[in-house]
Amino acid sequence: MTAPDSDVARSTAAHAADSAAPPVTAGAVGPQRIVCLTEEPTETLYALGQQHRIVGISGFTVRPAIARKEKPKVSAFTSAKIDEILRLEPDFVVGFSDIQADIASALIRHGVEVWISNHRSVPGILDYIRRLGALVGVADQANAYADELQRGLDAIEAQAATLPRRPKVYFEEWDEPLITGIRWVVELMRIAGGDDVFPELANESLAKNRILATTDPVVPRAPDIIFGSWCGKKFRPEKVAARPGWDAIPAVRDGELHEIKSPLILQPGPAALTDGVQALSRVIDAWARRHA
Asked: Are the C-beta atoms of residues 101 and 10 closer than 8 Å to each other?
């Protein structure tokens, strides 16, 4: 996904006056001017009370909502306004995955310190929060926050252990072509009480390795629940139900086709471990109680 250049430019110009961080005080620890190329570092830094350090964010950031009002948007996911980022004079840039390698490389060539994380699991997300906190000098707060998130996951898992039945679940990350759920999503479904119908694909970190060549393989797996989270566009359950042969799938037959907004579940950060897993849990819990 890419944001229009004009949108990025307008956002940067509109927020230029807001991009200056407070003067660095004596004894300040860690980077003071941070650019976040994806949403999860922005959400994490806000949660840790370190939003004053952020001088630029991704145009796809929606959490927390206030960040879109306070911070200039200087990047998409696979592209960025390098000149605009450099004008913000960042002392630290945070991105995610090999998909942002070109952005990172360009910034590094200009002498900017860049950290590209590549976590793909629930434990990886928790560790990411701890590491990011340590890198910006607030390790204690980050550890406490990660511990709080872990307790929330433990509570959901304990609740799921009481379910009378565990549904078989199919998670669809994209529809053209079909892409199954990434590892942290599958782990969260398991925590919430569901069992992924394509567990052999979950550990594939690259989306291209989780592509189903046709819609046929889903039918014999007979999922009880289908979750759709089509990144960047609205999930269309009627289109899913109309796929050839899918009327035989229990989830389609029973109307168990549910959307989870991609910012809640497809960002490997706090959102997935809170609102994302809770959304999964609500649907799975309701199904299990009905099918006791």
From this structure: no
